Amino acid sequence: MLDYALLQKLCTAHGIAGHEDAVRELILSEIRSYADSITIDHLGNLLVFKKGRQTPAKKLLLSAHMDEVGFIVTHIDKDGCLHFASVGGINNSAAFAKTVCIGEKAVAGVICHKPLHLLKSEERKKAPALEDLLIDIGAKDREEAESYVSLGDPVYFVSPYENQNGRVISKAIDDRFGCLILIEMLRRPLAYDMYFSFVVQEEIGLRGAKAAAYTVAPDYAIVVEATTAADVPYAEGEKRVCCVGQGAVVSFMDRSTLYDKEFYRIAMACAKEQGVKAQTKTMIAGGNDAGAIHQSRGGVRTLAVSLPCRYIHSSAGLASTEDMEAVYTVVSATAEKLLSL
Question: Before 175, cis peptide (omega within 30)?
Answer without folding.
Answer: yes
